[in-house]
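Subgroup meeting minutes
Present: P.N., E.W., G.H.
Scribe: E.W.

1. P.N. recapped why we're keeping a running log of single-chain structure predictions: easier to compare across weeks, and new members can see raw inputs and outputs side by side.
2. G.H. added today's entry (230 aa).
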Amino acid sequence: MIRILLIEDEKNLRDIITLNLELENYEVVPAVNGQEALEKIDGQYFDVIILDLMLPKINGLDVLATLRVKNPDIPVIIVSAKSTSTDRITGLKSGANDYLSKPFEMEELILRIQNLIQRAPTNANEHSEDLFVFGNNKIDFKAYKGWHGDRSFDLSTKESQIIKFLINNKNEVVSRHEILKAVWGYDVFPSTRTIDNFIATLRKYFEDDPKDPMYIKSVRGVGYKFIESY
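Output recorded in log:
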C-alpha cells in the first residue's frame, strides 16, 4: 500500500484529504506541525509527502530543506494558500516536485499524487542525485564516499549532509544557522563553530588549496556558498 505523509495543521482540511485518499486505497499518516513531521520522516517510510507551508513550530520550507538533505528521493507536493508565482517558484526551487494552491479540487490532488508516484525512481540506477561530480571531485552520497582526483575517502554522515545541503543551494549563501537546522534538526544544536570545523575538513577533501577554496566559499559574517562553475 502506498504510504502518504500528510503535513497539514488545519483539521477540517486534513480530515477531508485523509478521507479522499483512503478511498483511493492510500495509507495516510497525519502530522499537524513541522516538528512532528520531521520526527515521522526520521522514523518511517513514505512514498509521497503532502506538505503545507504555513505550519506551527517549524515552517514547511524548513521541513523541506531538512528532508532534502537526508532524503532527496521522496516525492513532495506542496499544498498551500500561498499562491503567487513567486511562492510556487520558491517551493519548487527548494526541492518540491509539485505545487498546488489552495483551494483546489480533490480530484486534481489525487491526479498529481498519482503522477508523482509514477515518476518516482524504481531502482538505484535512476537515483541520479546519488552521484555528484564537480571539477576533479566526485561524491557518492549513497555510499558516503568521495574522491579528489585519484584519492578516495569515506564521508561521515554529517560531512555528507553538509556538503549535500551546500550543493542543493549552490551559488546561494547559506548561514551557519540554516546548516544547523537542516543537518542537526531542531532538538540539539552544536555551536556554529562546529560548522566551521566541518567546512575546514570538507575543504581538505575537495579543494586543491584549502586556504584558497574554489568551491566552498566563505561569506564573511554570514556563512558559506558552494560554487560549481569553475
